[in-house]
Write a structure and sequence with these properties.
The protein contains 13 helices and 2 strands; from the N terminus they run H-H-H-H-H-H-H-H-H-H-H-H-E-E-H. The chain is mainly alpha-helical and 325 residues long. The chain has a two-stranded antiparallel ribbon with strand order 1-2.
Length: 325
Amino acid sequence: MKPFRELNFDLDGYLDPHLPRSRLDRLPNFISHFLGVRNSNSNGADADSDRNPDGNVVEWFWGFIGAFSCIALIEVVLRHCPYPFQENEDLFPRPMIIASFGAAVILEFSAINSPLSQPRNLVLGQILATTSAIAITKLLALSPQFDDHLHWLAGALSVAVASLVMGVSKTTHPPAGATALLAAVDPALQRMGWYFLVPVLISTALVLALACLLNNIQRRFPLYWWSFGAGVAGVTPSSPSPSPLSLAAASSSCAGPDVEKEAASSSSETSRSEHEPNRRNDFNLHLESLSVSADGVKIPPGLQLDDEETAVLHRLSGRMKQGRT
């Protein structure tokens, strides 16, 4: 039996093989573009593969526009949408906005390359965390000692369970932990019970919709809808490329020692996969069609990479682009 520190469970290893292949690339370009899909041209390169802006000023600009627009939109919608407790707003005040979404919009507009900001993490993270917190709080509230002795436990247990559930489901989204805490300790939101899911779902949908719209004007979002290598990935898989990962890593020397360190990091990640024979065999099977270059990352269908491996590949691509310019 493996030591505890070496135990590993990858939910995507069970789910991804059964997911259908993405059909987003079949949509008209003016639609699929705003869903993060970049179709390949006749040369095999992405027609618009740049995920990162050329400078950080572009990132700051769209971060400001996105945060302002998104928070304002959520506040307007929640203020005017039907409210189930409209006749008892003194007891159940209408939330103008859920505070945790302030952190969410920072992720969705200023850290769009982070795995934590991708749609799977945003949507499922908020839903799972909120549902867990409401269920735990209602369960503890059955005790007559809840207000005096167990209220503190609701907040701590809600965040801990939310962290566990999001970790197992690979939907970690830090703002969702704050949503879970609010559902457990805020008296007004606690009284809403399961109705608290309504403003959470509305806010989540608005954040995702506006992120897809604004982040695809000069950047690219999302990087994927479920996970890299899955059938529903946001990246349109390309045909097998003659340039393997090793050639891309070798060519990265033009970008300086930092890229070489990233390549070494990628190599160390591969060596760690000795504890995961199934994933190692899958990687070797598709290695010849995995390409990392200054034009972007091309991941073949069926190749399953975790978030850390994906981030290394995209950092390599970004460094190569900087070295080329």
